[in-house]
Amino acid sequence: MDREEKVTEVREVRGTAAVKEETVGSSVLVARIIYFIFGVIIAFIALRFVLLLLGANQGSAFVDFIYGVSGVFVAPFYGMFNNTPTFGASVLDVSSIVAIVIYALVSWALVALVTLGTRNRADV
Predict the structure, then answer these.
(1) Read out DSSP for 22-74?
(2) How far apart are CA 27 and CA 108, in angstroms?
(3) DSSP state of 21
């Protein structure tokens, strides 16, 4: 018999005496972690897209940090189109848009795979 580890969350609503107890399966917990990790990756890529679109200066420490971190995740998608990012000039980086879509689809597919055996997938 396959047993799933249960994690219990207790939430208290202020102003009422009712306490709601919710049991969350380990697969739902893993799904939430997957969504969080891919959400952070997508946020970095979205910041990169906006900074490139606005022509942000790479000399700024924050901009350089965002370009460095997000560049790792966008690198596999370079060369798909004939545009390459020019730092300091306004660029529509299509590779970043493709990367956002692909990472969103991958996260959705991983969560669907992890929560395949759960009864209530709406908890994710």
Answers:
(1) EEEEHHHHHHHHHHHHHHHHHHHHHHHHHHHHHT--TTSHHHHHHHHHHHHHH
(2) 14
(3) E
Domain residue spans of the chain: 26-123
Query: Measured in Å, how far apart are the chain's first and last C-alpha atoms?
Result: 24
Cα 50 to its chain centre, rounded Å, is 17
- The one-letter amino acid code at 114 reads V
What pLDDT, in 10s, does the model give residues 46-93?
A: 999 999 999 888 889 999 999 999 999 999 998 887 766 666 678 888
Residue 45 near residue 73 (C-beta atoms within 8 A): yes
Nearest alpha-carbon partner for 39 in 110, 114, 93: 110
Tell me if 4 sits within 8 A of 25, measured CB to CB. yes
Helix (H) or strand (E) holding 20: strand 19-25
**Structure-model confidence comparison of residues 86 and 21, the more confident one:** 86
Task: Judge whether 105 and 28 are in contact, CB under 8 Å.
Answer: no
